[in-house]
Amino acid sequence: MSGNSDEATAPGADWDALAASFDDEPDHGLRDAEVRRAWAARLASWLPALPGDVLDLGCGTGSLSLLAAEQGHRVTGVDLSPAMVELARTKLAGRDAVFLTGDAAAPPVGEQRFDAVLVRHVLWTLPDPGRALRHWRQLLRPEGRLVLVEGVWGSVAPVGIPADRVTALLGPLAGQARVERLSDDPSLWGREVADERYAVVATYG
After folding, report:
1. Residue 69 in contact with residue 53, Cβ under 8 Å?
2. Which among 118, 147, 176, 184 could disulfide-bond with 46, CB atoms 3.0 to 4.6 Å apart, if both were Cys?
3. Helix (H) or strand (E) holding 118
């Protein structure tokens, strides 16, 4: 999901077809050193300080997975697109990372539990985001955390999910949620952006 208003069409998009060019977006491929540093710094502040198990849902080509692995975490990535999963496996070859093809809303991880569940630009595409959040909460260890990077894109016909709706959906899950605004940091996107972009970090235990 690029976040460009003309590309905010994730539901129904052919992600296998988009996989080859997915990393061309600055915040997808993280090929620009400044953009990469900006995401690495944010991720380090959101994920647990000690190395742990991170589940990256809707992992795409694995750019955030790679940053998490570089910070010492063991990563499991899940994406619906087999082509994306293959690119992620290549990107993280030799690292402590496993990539699975599956539904982010119900990832195929069995009884495995995680120290953090990381989800970028996926929640807004799901028909029942509350149900997905409840399920992701169950995948956390007792001291775990949910890291949700979302937004509302476009001005004519905006799509996405506002931060206050996400925090309301998280309310019944009894964690401590904080919202971090990302719109005013162009280094994350490779350009200035005017729409609503944010992260919600919910901690438990």
Report:
1. no
2. 147
3. strand 114-120
* Phi, psi (deg, nearest 5) at residue 150: -140, -170
The bridge status of strand 196-203 relative to strand 176-181 is antiparallel
DSSP string, 154-199: -SSS-EE--HHHHHHHHGGGT-EEEEEE-TT-GGGTTS---SEEEE
pLDDT > 50? residue 54: yes
- Per-residue confidence (pLDDT) for residue 196, from 0 to 100: 94
**Residue environment code for 103-118, b if the CB has 16+ CB neighbours within 10 A, otherwise e:** ebbebebeeeebbbbb
Note the pLDDT tens digit of each residue in 108-166: 999 999 999 999 999 999 999 999 999 999 999 999 999 999 999 887 889 999 999 99
- Select from 3, 2, 1 the least CA-distant residue to 158: 3
Beta-carbon contacts of 62 under 8 Å, excluding residues fewer than 6 positions away, are: 56, 77, 87, 88, 89, 91, 92, 97, 99
Separation CA 151–CA 159 (nearest Å): 8
User: How far, in Å, CA of 45 to CA of 8, rounded?
Assistant: 27
Q: How far apart are CA 25 and CA 3, in angstroms?
A: 9
Type and span of the H or E element at 144: strand 140-153
Q: Could you tell me the pTM of the whole model?
A: 0.90
DSSP structural state of residue 145: E
